[in-house]
Amino acid sequence: MTDTLSRTFSALADPTRRAILARLSNGEATVNELAEPFPMSLPAVSRHLKVLEEAGLITRGRTRQWRPCRLEAKPLEDVAGWVATYRRFWDDGFDRLEEHLRSLTGDA
Amino acid sequence: MPDLTITRVFDAPRELVFAAWTDPDQLASWLGPHGYTGSAVTLATRPGGAWRACIRSPEGDEHWMHGVYREITAPERLVFTFAWDTEGDLRDETLVTIGFADLGGKTEMTFAQTGFPTVADRDGHDEGWTSSFEDLTGFIRGKDAR
């Protein structure tokens, strides 16, 4: 529900980016290594990495040419948190709905 | 598979439970967490019709939400989109599907909120997105274990 979450979801909506994240869940990798399985140019892969980086899903090393990418778990945990937030929202509402229905059927 | 499913049995006929969702005054009376009050609920209950609602926290903070009805089959099924008002950005829009099953006077309500159709619709990867969300859950667990 925040901008960060929107960015996370947008970043995750692309199958290439999800595949990149899946690869990174096995450990750090360079752009070249990440690009290998994809039929696309290095600049195209770099653009995907930029989206992932801006969403906070990956971080990249500072060494100049060898800039290994690594997965960041925090935004992914927030995605799960987002669903949990909705569960609380509705569960609470449905408790109130139950009370409301009880008042209608006269069991209150 | 939906991202969020909640099943509840209410001791009321399903016509009543259905109406609690489609009647603005009734929806306003229960929507939102404990302590919140619903206000300004407008519901155009027809397919393609818009709905809008506001809940106010005990501290007075207002949270607006809105969406569009996709299916209204009284008293068994209700489908609508759901999004919070966030400065014109609809990227967190979700789809709510509610089934109302008759259990001989009681009603089993199956509520499902499924993922992020704005993103999915735009990309046309609806199924892929859903399964990826399941992958993601395993993913998060994997990270936690490290």
Radius of gyration of chain B (CA) equals: 17 Å
Biggest sheet of chain B: strands side by side, in what order?
A: 1-7-6-5-4-3-2
> Could you tell me the number of beta strands of chain B?
7
Give the class of chain A from helix and strand content and strand pairing. mainly alpha
Mean pLDDT of chain B: 77
State the shape of chain A. Answer: elongated
Structure description:
Chain A has helices at residues 3-12, 15-24, 31-35, 42-54, 74-105; strands spanning 58-60, 69-71. Chain A is mainly alpha-helical and 108 residues long. Chain A has a two-stranded antiparallel ribbon with strand order 1-2. In chain A, a hairpin with an 8-residue loop joins strand 1 and strand 2 (69-71). In chain A, helix 1 (3-12) packs across helix 5. The radius of gyration of chain A is 21 Å and the shape is elongated. The mean pLDDT of chain A is 82. By secondary structure, chain B is of the alpha+beta class. Chain B is built from 4 helices and 7 strands. Chain B has helices at residues 14-22, 24-30, 117-123, 126-145, and strands at 4-10, 37-43, 50-56, 62-73, 77-84, 94-103, 106-114. In chain B, strands 1-7-6-5-4-3-2 form a 7-stranded antiparallel β-sheet. In chain B, a hairpin with a 5-residue loop joins strand 3 (50-56) and strand 4 (62-73). Chain B is globular. Residues 87-91 and 116-146 of chain B have low confidence and may be disordered.
Give a short summary of the structure.
The complex is a heterodimer of chains A (108) and B (146). By secondary structure, chain A is mainly alpha-helical.
